[in-house]
Design the sequence.
């Protein structure tokens, strides 16, 4: 099944992935492409519309990213956001200049007034807050364009040429700060582009399963299963497609949270697949013995994971395809064309050369994280796995500060479970994005049962965030923290003091190591 597609042309703005998410939330398939994408490549995708993103440059700078002017002759609706709006004006006879007065610059929340006769604002309030971030100014609007939104400081907040389907807004409708911003994007998609809303996760699942079956045929498929959301959903999707032709290798390094290894194994019991659980706890703990530096811990764990995976892969024999849980932000962040590389992603880095794959299958590569979770539900994965919190690759090894022992890990596992259990009982999971316990290497004096103790301090950490780039510490109610503290010191050996981390990111990071 082919979906209607909207292309987001990326000019280096910070919210580009968010634009794509908003489009998909409206039921329309969307892909982010670099601004250097050729017109032939755009035509080949047969889009129903194009969105130009924001960006840090000034359109009048000769070195700034530009588009082939012929894009405006393709007969496709175009929505320009911030830099994208100025790009439309610059190319079609308008004039964009640097703002020389504070009144022409706008940053942050701005009261804005809209002409609701314009299709972009149809059915929406005539007044509302928008999120501005521009230092340039459209001094002259192109011929044929109307002014359809203004603020107290700027008369040219939004422009449109309804006849050609060209729209430009100086603000960012994709961010939550802009009131009714998603409604504006929806209007562009449905009122201007004629979208049908044919992007559903159920359709994606069925299409992906058919594509995997066609590609794999009778071949063997191998997947390194970490127990994380992405690899678990990829495994479930491929299992639905090819069943026993799939082998999932789950390297149980002994650094998981309480019962997680069993939960991962149980989650895949319903599928007719070859599930290999490699019990490597003793190996990993032996290699980590006496190691205190977190970077050394990470490198040891990464290396040993590959070695165990190698050993298990040898037992399987010739494998035709490798499955990776790459998701769309991984693809974008790894860079394409002239795009900057934020971080290179290779989800099974360091795979052995002897495994001669015909091809790598990445069935999630066009999905965002929340879409991956939605697909997991469509496939019948349990909610505890679909909504699994972000968990560091080295597992609890970097939540035990200092040297690692099985006793310390078991102590942390139980304490962490109690913390998560009380959060669940208080129905607070939806108010925080990541929460966990850290076993510090600090000991202090305590009194238990009229006797002196000298045991470990446990730190609790919880943050609220939208992007994990910045985060604020969660204001957990005192009565919940009290229950957590009482339970841990009574139920978990070797802990006599609980502290709560109230540091935001920055200056702190989310994890302690």
Sequence:
């Amino acid at each position: 099944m082919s979906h209607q597609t909207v292309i987001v042309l990326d000019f280096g703005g910070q919210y580009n992935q968010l634009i794509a998410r908003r489009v998909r939330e409206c039921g329309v398939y969307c892909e982010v492409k670099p601004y250097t994408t050729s017109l032939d490549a755009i035509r080949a995708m047969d889009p129903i519309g194009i969105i130009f993103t924001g960006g840090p440059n000034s359109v009048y700078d000769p070195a700034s990213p530009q588009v082939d002017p012929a894009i405006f002759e393709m007969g496709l609706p175009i929505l320009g956001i911030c830099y994208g709006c100025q790009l439309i004006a610059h190319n079609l006879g308008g004039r964009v200049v640097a703002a020389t007065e504070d009144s022409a610059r706008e940053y942050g929340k701005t009261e804005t007034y809209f002409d609701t006769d314009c299709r972009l604002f149809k059915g929406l309030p005539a007044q509302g807050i928008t999120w501005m971030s521009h230092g340039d100014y459209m001094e002259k609007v192109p011929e044929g364009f109307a002014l359809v939104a203004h603020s107290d400081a700027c008369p040219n907040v939004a422009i449109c040429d309804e006849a050609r389907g060209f729209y430009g807004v100086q603000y960012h409708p994709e961010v939550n700060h802009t009131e009714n911003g998603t409604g504006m994007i929806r209007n562009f998609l449905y009122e201007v582009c004629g979208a049908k809303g044919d992007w559903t996760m159920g359709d994606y699942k069925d299409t992906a399963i058919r594509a995997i079956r066609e590609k794999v045929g009778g071949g063997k498929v191998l997947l390194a299963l970490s127990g994380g959301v992405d690899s678990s959903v990829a495994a479930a999707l491929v299992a639905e497609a090819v069943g026993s032709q799939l082998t999932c290798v789950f390297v149980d390094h002994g650094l998981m949270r309480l019962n997680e290894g069993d939960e991962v194994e149980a989650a895949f019991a319903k599928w007719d697949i070859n599930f290999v659980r490699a019990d490597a706890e003793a190996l990993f703990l032996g290699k980590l013995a006496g190691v205190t530096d977190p970077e050394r811990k990470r490198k040891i764990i990464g290396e040993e994971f590959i070695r165990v995976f190698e050993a298990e892969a040898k037992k399987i024999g010739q494998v035709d395809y490798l499955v990776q849980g790459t998701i769309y932000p991984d693809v974008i962040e790894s860079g394409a064309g002239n795009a900057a590389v934020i971080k290179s992603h290779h989800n099974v880095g360091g795979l052995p050369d002897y495994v001669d794959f015909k091809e790598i299958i990445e069935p999630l590569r066009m999905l965002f994280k929340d879409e991956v979770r939605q697909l997991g539900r469509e496939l019948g994965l349990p909610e505890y796995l679909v909504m699994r919190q972000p968990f560091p690759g080295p597992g609890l090894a970097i939540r035990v500060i200092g040297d690692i022992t099985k006793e310390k890990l078991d102590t942390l596992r139980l304490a962490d479970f109690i913390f998560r259990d009380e959060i669940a009982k208080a129905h607070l999971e939806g108010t925080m994005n990541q929460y966990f316990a850290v076993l510090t290497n600090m000991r202090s004096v305590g009194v238990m049962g009229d006797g002196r103790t000298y045991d470990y301090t446990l730190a609790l950490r919880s943050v609220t965030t939208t992007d994990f780039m910045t985060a604020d510490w969660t204001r957990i109610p005192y009565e919940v923290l009290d229950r957590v503290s009482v339970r841990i010191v009574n139920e978990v050996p070797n802990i006599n003091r609980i502290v709560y981390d109230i540091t935001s990111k920055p200056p702190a990071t989310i994890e302690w190591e």
Notes: The chain is about 30% helix and 25% strand. The CA atoms of residues 13 and 55 lie 4 Å apart.
